[in-house]
Design brief:
The protein is mostly helical and 292 residues long. It has two domains: 175 residues, no CATH class; 96 residues, no CATH class. Helices cover 47% and strands 7% of the residues. The protein is built from eight helices and five strands. Strands 3-4-5 form a three-stranded antiparallel sheet. α1 runs antiparallel to α2, α1 packs antiparallel against α6 and α3 packs antiparallel against α5. It is elongated and about 70 Å long. It binds zinc ion (ZN).
Length: 292
């Protein structure tokens, strides 16, 4: 096995992220292949491109080692300090966490649930979004499939369901790497600023009152109105998540093209690129998982 044995968790996370992105691409190319087919449901049995088995194993081994080391320090390795193989790490997890009877998943609850911005908790992401759900059975099956493929003794290939089970590990706070090199601290700061912006917006709304807010909403013009010739990068107003008026001026979109960056011209609420990226990523993953 690759040297990954003594890697610190941030290196494991980075490695996991790189490999996981490659697995994502292996899936995306397959759906890009037919641009005319509207993706309305996700085919969990869709196969990934051949040759990705080793990448999958690396991503899984690093993710599991990082999670076990973070949750139960020391249990990721044997008495000589050698990190266990993925299959053994999955057994460790299954012994530590009783699987949920309905789903068979081992769930590590979100340990930051209390500090998340109230806005995120209330409006944005479904309950338990940041819990880590580990499908020990499916991930073990993935190891079987990839092992057979790598030794040329099987025809089966890794499927979308296996990749999704792998990507689900990214919810664990020691990973969360799929957005790139961002740190948890930057994210926390961004969410903190977002919450403060919401507070300021609400204070302003209270100060001017409903009628005045209504009046402003009706008389305002969109500073970034779309025009095919004069402002092709413009956008229509969107509904503001704080005041509810159709006055959120869109200045750009998150990296997934799903969530608007910008500011409301009535209540002043501002959504930063980082927060938009995070929300967009949440929606993107939800879409990938076929939960829509
Ligand atoms: Zn507003």
């Amino acid at each position: 096995m690759q040297s990954g044995n003594e890697l610190p968790n941030d290196s494991r996370a980075k490695y996991f992220g790189q490999c996981a992105v490659m697995m994502l691409n292996a899936l995306q190319q397959e759906s890009d292949a037919d641009p005319f087919s509207e993706v309305t449901s996700v085919d969990l049995s869709a196969e990934t491109e051949r040759g990705h088995e080793g990448i999958y194993d690396q991503a899984l081994s690093n993710a599991l080692a990082a999670i076990v080391a973070a949750e139960w320090p020391g249990e990721e390795a044997n008495s000589q300090g050698r990190v266990h193989f993925a299959r053994v790490l999955l057994k460790v997890i299954a012994e530590k966490i009783r699987p949920e009877p309905a789903t068979g998943l081992c769930v590590i609850p979100d340990r930051d649930a209390d500090v998340r911005s109230p806005l995120e908790r209330e409006n944005r992401l479904p309950e338990g979004f940041w819990d880590t759900r580990i499908d020990v059975g499916l991930l073990t099956d993935a190891l079987d499939v990839s092992g057979r493929a790598r030794h040329g003794s099987g025809t089966g290939r890794l499927q979308r369901r296996h990749v999704q089970a792998l990507l689900a590990l990214d919810r664990h706070p020691t990973l969360r790497t799929l957005l790139g090199a961002q740190s948890d601290r930057d994210d926390e700061r961004a969410w903190h600023e977002d919450a403060r912006s919401v507070d300021q917006a609400r204070a302003l709304l209270q100060l001017i009152g409903d009628e005045e807010a209504e009046r402003r909403a009706e008389s305002t013009e969109n500073p970034n109105e779309y025009h095919p010739k004069h402002n092709p990068d413009g956008h229509d107003f969107e509904e503001c998540p704080v005041c509810g008026h159709e006055t959120f001026c869109v200045q750009g979109l998150d990296m997934w093209g799903r969530v608007a960056i910008g500011q409301c011209v009535v209540c002043s609420y501002r959504r930063s690129p980082r927060v938009a990226d995070q929300e967009g990523f949440g929606e993107h993953v939800t879409w990938l998982m076929g939960e829509d």
